[in-house]
Amino acid sequence: MAQPVSERARDIERLFAEDGPIAAAAVGYRKRAAQVEMAAAIAEAIEGQACLVAEAGTGTGKTFAYLVPALLWGGKVIISTGTKTLQDQLFERDLPAVRQALNVPVTTALLKGRANYVCHYHTERTLANGRLTSREDVAHLRRISVFLKTTRTGDKAELGTVPENAGVWSLVTSTRDNCLGQDCPNYKDCFVQQARKNAQQADVVVVNHHLFFADVMLREEGVSELLPAANTVIFDEAHQLPDTATLFFGDTVGSAQLLELCRDTLAEGLAHARDGADWLQAITPLEKAVRDLRLALGGVAERNAAKLAVDQIAASSPFFPALERVGAELERLTGVLETNAERAETIDALVRRAKELRAKLGAWVTAAATLRAALQSGGGPRHASEAQPDLDAGEDDPRDHVCWIDAYASSVQLHRSPLSIAPIFTRERESYPRAWIFTSATLAVKNDFSHFTEQLGLTDVAARAWPSPFDYPSQALLYVPQGMPEPHQSGFTDLVVERAWPLIEAAGGRTFLLCTTLRAVDRAADALRERLDAAGITLYRQGDAARTELLDRFRNTPRAVLIGSQSFWEGIDVRGQALSLVVIDKLPFAPPDDPVLAARLARITAAGGNAFMAHQVPEAVISLKQGAGRLIRSETDHGVLMLCDPRLISKPYGRRIWQSLPPFRRTREEAEAVAFLREVLSRPPG
Asked: Alpha-carbon distance 420 to 48, whole Å?
């Protein structure tokens, strides 16, 4: 029989008491009323198989607040995180600590996407091919080969001697496309299958958002589910869910998949059916057609990356004829593979892959043509109140999606993304009675959760916020410099550096400079380098090394400045005097050239709404709160947050953004900010 909620609350109070089990497990534990209240609210939601949206300010202790009720009363629990870093931290540190403190016989499992596990078959094939030309790749492959014989999990995160971004990883891991499944000769030893088996048997499974939604998509397609059915699902870093869900509830086909098909066709053809075809000649036309497809985008050929909505491509563009050639060459290669399919299971698997890619490519072409026709006929983005046009049963209105293209330096991806994920997510949430917990430090805009909840269809869900326990007015100062120009004006980044320099100098480094674009990162680094060298301050710039390596270097360098873009705005924890100044160049509004964003804004406008205030401002607030949250990470941290964008003061919407930030003491005087830094840094650490 279920205990009354009040008894649950008393249990939570006892567990989080100053002399309770959680206090014994956590170094430097302090009882926090917000943490206890949040844990009790989550316990109540779990018991009632309800949904709860829970914003927990930095320092609340939200991880323990959801782990305690989850382990005691959650039944089968899935915990999904936004990043692999937090996923590893949860599984390796927080989860074992809480399990030990509560002394409960709970089994746990860590499950990542298949690209994180070394594949026996692909490693052996890469070793046998001997086609690696880089000495560095050869050395990496040798280390991976040794690792394969000693690891129990196959998780590449365990092999720190091979960088996470090393190109050789793609040759020794599998994808959904090239996995042989039960036909693989190494199936019994497969690390992916072992991880899935462990997840099915465990009481608590730690995944990430990408993997969770990949499983949702498999269930949508009628494929056996990857993740076990659960009584409780907890999303940490839940503010990332709308973007991740949009990615997975759409369709993508890219040149990398097609070229990988060509590479695998050559390898398997030469290995098992050398006399079945001229395999090099068989793949060459498709390889050329795929590369020509990227070149057909001409206008963006010189750029590193570009996002293009399908209606931005002129009817006279060579892109669509080039796309037809890709389809024709893919069909021809499929025929060659089919004639040799009986020669080996691996070639038969390539036939299935080729047909799936043909289907995806054809679906995108059809959707793009239908959407272009709908838009050209005067039908703008359909909004929720508008009736569906006459469509065949089960057919989607093309205006409910946007077809777009990601063009990189030498590759291209074709995407079809939904304008709203709420109906799909609601269907998943209602498919099985269970508790759903959504938590993050940044879900609300001035205590209003509607922007987050409406995106996921959570309009009928309870939402609560627990403020940070930090004493922000005494621990931190928010400084908005006077006389800054609008961010679009030339020389803005140089002026950011100029105005930030007195504070960087006063802090002796110990600075994050967070930019909204990679171009600004490079410009700021160039502008600061000579000054930093002269002052004996080390410069770390995003892109010079992997993110985790840059952070480790920053933490271990007494006087350092780290300049980064979006990936450094969240999920980073640097405590103490090592980080005393965070400089943010401008308000993080999403780029207006993003096709999905543009289509969503057009839909809001078509419904009579103010797209800027309804969507862009809330998105900027949540992102800005994440960046600002890097500064104060504990009760003993002190520092200055410098926001260089004058729109925070000069624009009407700036007040809303200003009021959504933590209650730092505020100033517009440089001298006050410099004095604050010098004073807090003169104190003994801690």
From this structure: 28
Do residues 470 and 59 touch, judged by C-beta distance below 8 A? yes
Residue 234 forms beta bridges with which residues?
79, 437
Q: Encode pLDDT of 373-388 as tens digits.
A: 776 665 554 444 343 3
**Which tens digit of pLDDT belongs to each residue from 445-481?**
988 999 999 999 998 899 999 999 999 999 999 999 9
Strands 639-643 and 462-466: unpaired
Give the pLDDT band of residue 303 (cuts 50, 70, 90): very low
d(CA 669, CA 75): 54
Q: 229 Cβ partners below 8 Å, 6+ apart? A: 76, 432
pLDDT level of residue 573 (50, 70, 90 thresholds): confident
| Cα 189 from Cα 194, distance rounded (Å) | 8
* Pairwise CA distance, residues 293 & 365, whole Å: 14
What are the C-alpha distances in Å from 598 to residues 71, 266, 419, 593?
42, 41, 10, 7
**pTM score of the predicted model:** 0.88
Torsion, CA 396, CA 399, CA 400, CA 404, rounded to 10: 110
Burial tier of 566 (Cβ tally within 10 Å: 0-12, 13-18, 19+): middle
* Residue at 137: amino acid letter: D
CA distance 478 to 657: 13
In this structure, is the dihedral angle defined by the CA atoms of residues 467, 468, 470 and 474, taken in order, positive or negative?
negative
CA distances (Å), origin 297, targets 301, 303, 323, 330, 354: 6, 11, 11, 20, 24
DSSP-derived letter for residue 229 is P
Of 359, 64, 418, 425, the closest CA to residue 209 belongs to 425
Here the contacts of 158-166 (C-beta below 8 Å, separation 24 or greater) are 163/546, 164/546, 164/548, 165/546, 166/136, 166/137, 166/140
Strand stretches in 451-537, DSSP E: 462-466, 476-479, 511-514
**CA 553 to chain CA mean position, Å:** 23
- From the list 252, 623, 212, the residue with the least C-alpha distance to 442 is 623
Which DSSP state fits 117? B
Give residue-wise pLDDT tens across range 29-46. 889 999 999 999 999 999
**Confidence band (pLDDT; 50, 70, 90) for 94?**
very high
Residue 379 confidence (pLDDT) = 54
- Among left, alpha and beta (phi > 0; psi -120 to 50; other), residue 399 is alpha
Phi and psi dihedrals of 289, rounded to 5?
Answer: -65, -40
CA 429 to chain centre: 21
- Distance, CA of 607 to CA of 450 (rounded, Å): 17
List, in order, residues 6 or more apart from 19 with CB less than 8 Å away. Answer: none
DSSP state, residue 234: E
Under DSSP, the state recorded for 107 is -
**Do 246 and 417 touch, CB atoms closer than 8 A?**
yes
